[in-house]
Amino acid sequence: MPSASQPGPTPGSSTGPQPGAAPLAQPSAALPASPPEPPVPPARAQGQTAPGAGSGAVQPFVYLGRQPILDRNGALNAYELLFRGGAQNRADVDDDALATAQVMTRTIGQLGVPAVLGRHYGYVNISRELLFDDIVHLLPPGRFVLEVLEHVRFDAAVLERLAQLRRAGYRIAFDDVSEITENLLRALPYADIVKVDLMQTERAALPELVASLAAHGKTLIAEKVETGEDFELASSLGFELFQGYFFARPQVLRAPRVRASRLALVRLLALVANDVGTAELERELRSHPGVVVQLLRLVNSSAYSPGRPISSLREAVLAAGTRQIARWAQLLLYASGRDLPWGSDPLVQLAGTRSHFMELAARSLNPQDPEFADAAFMTGIFSLVHVLVGSTPENTLDRLGLSREIVEAVDGHRGELGTLLRIATAAERGDHDGAQRLAREAGGMFTALTPPLLGELNLWAGAWFTAYAEG
């Protein structure tokens, strides 16, 4: 565990812009050249409602800002993650807690931690409200630094909470420091890193401020480094890390919006609160494909990965654990804002109906093999996930850690699950002759999928989704 005076060794470092060089056009250029990291498309012009702003049309993308934090040699040390309500590179934040909740859901559940951070740390702004919220534990302490906002008052309750979080392995940074105050002095023993705002600090007061903070053994970050002169001054005073427009403006990343049903999240929280078993959680998750997609992203983050491919919802639930599922549902519920109802999304409707059709078909074909039915359900959900997140099947499935059988079924229609997926796709198009022909050509157990049975399965799957979508 890193000492209180140092941020600890970074998971990876890379050569960034050299001090004094022209500002970077794209901070992503500072990412390591090898191994390559999954690309994240920069945002194009799309509007979106910011937290707390007036209602408007739901946009197809979510956005996230990241600004590099560099060491004195120009090597990339970390990124600060920033709320962005649209492609425009500005914050427009009027609710700190909601903005951070959306940063967390977009980083972990939609863009993915590896794509956003690579091998580097992420600094996340934390308000007093979120400091005391259990959902902060969704951030793996080995990947994230908790950056306490400047307006947080360090009373006894806050200091005790900071001590708890540090014992849990988190490193704490204080944001926008410009002077030594009683509030700051009281809290310094609970911080690892202090970010000094060069724009808000009087130049004549900087040497004394830096000397005082350094005497307390804190790692110092100079933020809002706007010019070469700022960088030279900060370097001469002993700052170790640097952030500002002199190096790079924040880069705006985007990902297609993945919606989660608010009703589904409420149900999940209620089930966890009632301490239900894995089977009930699994049963509830089956009715909500959007939540399953994000749960798989959570499970496959570095902190929770089971180290083996996932082939059923039960494995995903067991890997995450009920407490993490509750935290994730709470965060998604808080950050979901004014999304369109889940039942009105045609892509989610199709994924839900297809997955249940495949599960019912698998149970009909092999009633003694529940694992085959589980895998069929997962195949149905993830057969469309690449469309939902705007990528290719290969790239998307690699990030979800699914079993080889499911991957081969989705990306190539291979194996028994692949055959079942082809039959389901034909049936949902209304091509019953084509579905019957595929079943006949596959032979074996698939010959049991007669036209009457295919029609019944389609009807049951559609009725099942409608019942859940309407709550």
From TrEMBL:
InterPro entries referenced in this protein's UniProt entry, alphabetically: EAL_dom (IPR001633), EAL_sf (IPR035919), HDOD (IPR013976), RNase_Y/CdgJ (IPR052340)
Protein known as: EAL domain-containing protein
Residue segments, region Disordered: 1-53
Domain of life: Bacteria
Residue ranges constituting the HDOD domain according to the UniProt record: 255-448
Biased composition (Pro residues): 33-42
Transmembrane segments: none
